[in-house]
Amino acid sequence: MKTRNISFKIVALLALLFIGFPSLAQDVAEGAEAVETAVVSEGESLPIYKRFGMSDTELFSWLLGITLLLVVLVLVLGNTIRTVAKRYSDEINKGAKILLIGLLVASPSFASAAEADGAAYDKVIVMDSLTFWHFIIFDILLVLLAFHYIRKIHGLLPDFAKPKSIINWNKLRKEVTDTVPVEEEASILLDHDYDGIKELDNNLPPWWKYGFYVTIVWAVGYIFYYQILEIGNLQEAEYLQEMEEGDRAVAEYKAAHPELITADNVELLEDPSSLAEGKSTFETYCVSCHMENGTGGIGPNLTDKYWIYDGSIKGVFTTISEGADNGMVAWKEFIPADQIQKVASYVLSLEPALPPLGKEPQGDNIFE
Known about the structure:
Blueprint: H1 2-40, H2 48-51, H3 56-84, H4 89-121, H5 129-156, H6 169-177, E1 189-194, E2 197-200, H7 206-228, H8 235-256, H9 272-285, H10 287-290, E3 306-307, H11 313-322, H12 337-348, E4 365-366
Antiparallel strand pairs: 1-2, 3-4
C-alpha cells in the first residue's frame, strides 16, 4: 500500500507539473525570444526551426512523433506493471487519467500560441519558442515517468527473471587492475621491511602497460608521419598556415562589411588592384576640385608634402569621410568606407607635382 501511494504521488506530481508548466514554458520562451530579439537586431538570428535546418511543419512533426512514441512507451509500461501486479491497477489507471487531464488542460496553450502567431505569420503550423519548449518539457516529464515505471517493473521481477548485466564489472575490474586480494597478499610479500613498512611484489596494472605500449606505437607513427615522410605539418608550419587562413578570413569579412572600416582601423593599401579602384573613384568624384592626378584646382594640391589637415592615411580617410570646413563634402554619404580607404591610399601614392605643374602649397602640416 505504501509503495502504491508513493508511485501514485509521483504520477500525480508529474501530471500537475505538466498542467502548470505552460507558465514555465512561457518564461523560458520569453527569455529565449529576448535573446533572439537582441540578436535579430544585428541581423544574425534565425527562427528556432531554421536552427535545426527544418521548416515549421518538419520540426513540429518530429517533436510530435517523439512525444507520441514516449506516450505509447509510458502506456505500454503502465500496462505491463498492471499485468505483472494486479495491485497496481488502480494506481496506473489514476496515473493515466491524470496525465490525460494534464494534456487536455495544457493543450489550449498550444492552440493559443499557434492562433496568435498564425495571425502574424499566416501559417497552419507555427513552431515558435513557446511551442518548442512545451514539447521539450512535456517529453522530459514522459521520460522521467517511463524510468519510474521501468524501475518498478525491475523490482517486481523475481531474481531469476531479472536481466543479467552484459558486462561483468567485477571480472573486468580484476583483469584491468590485476590486483591481489587482501587475504592473499602474503603470497607476494617481499623481505624488504623498513620502519615497519613492507613491500608487495604487485604486477604493473595491465591498463597502465597497454597504455604505455599504445604511446610507443603512437610515437613511431608520429615520427614517420611528421619527420620522415613529412606528410603532416609541424607546429610552426601549422601556425603559419592558420595565420594565413585567419588573415584571409579577416580580409573576406572586411570586404563583405565595408562599413566596419573606420579611421581607427584603416590601413594604407599598396596593391595595384586597390589603387586602380581608388583612382577610378577619384576620377569620378574628386577631379572637379583637385584636378586630374591631384595637382589641385578649387581644392589643394594633393601631391606635395604640405597638408591643411592630417596627411596620414587616417587623416586623409577622415577628411574624405567626414568632410572639412573649407567646403569639402562628407563623402561617407555617397562612397562606401572600403572605397574611401582605396581613394585615400591612391591619393597618398600620387607622384609629386610641384609648381608650375601643380598648385602652390597650402597648409602647415608636413608629411613626407
